[in-house]
Amino acid sequence: MKYSELIDQYRDVIPYAVFGVLTTLVNIVSYWLFSHIFHAGVMGSTVIAWILSVLFAYVTNRKWVFHSEAVGTRAVVKEMISFFTCRLATGVIDWLCMFVFVDLLHLNDMVIKIAANVIVIVLNYIASKLVIFRHSDQKERL
Q1: CA distances for 73 relative to 23, 76, 139, angstroms
Q2: Cα distances (Å, whole numbers) of residue 141 to 72, 73, 75, 135
């Protein structure tokens, strides 16, 4: 298989991996800042980190990963609602992991935060590819 065929075959996966790492860094660094510097607590810091990372992820996923073709207010709002709803579902998984393993079981918060992010990244890719940024219905216009 040629190099260009490999790139074409994985055209969504490669940028998703790059921006996934960056989104994870936004999540982990903002969690650490709010939890360890600003002492916002585990759950408060997790929520703030989630909001910041989801905003970052939406912009990067829409533009550079899945090359969204949604045009017009109605289509973009529909896409955003779908994105944030799916991310809210995986955010609940993150919050549950932090609550159970850090607050209840007193395990290392940074280790759990990283492990939870791995699970969330995989689930977010599946949701983005199959639900949010499907190319078949994105040309819906206002």
Answers
A1: 25, 5, 12
A2: 5, 8, 6, 14
Following DSSP, what letter does each residue of 29-94 receive, concatenated?
HHHHIIIIIS---HHHHHHHHHHHHHHHHHHHIIIIIS-----SHHHHHHHHHHHHHHHHHHHHHH
Task: Count CA atoms within 13 Å of residue 127 on its CB side.
Answer: 22
pTM of the prediction? 0.75
Secondary element (H or E) of residue 134: none
pLDDT tens by residue, 86-127: 899 998 999 999 999 999 999 999 999 999 988 988 898 888
Closest CA to 28 of 10, 13, 50: 50
Contact 116, 94 (CB under 8 A): yes
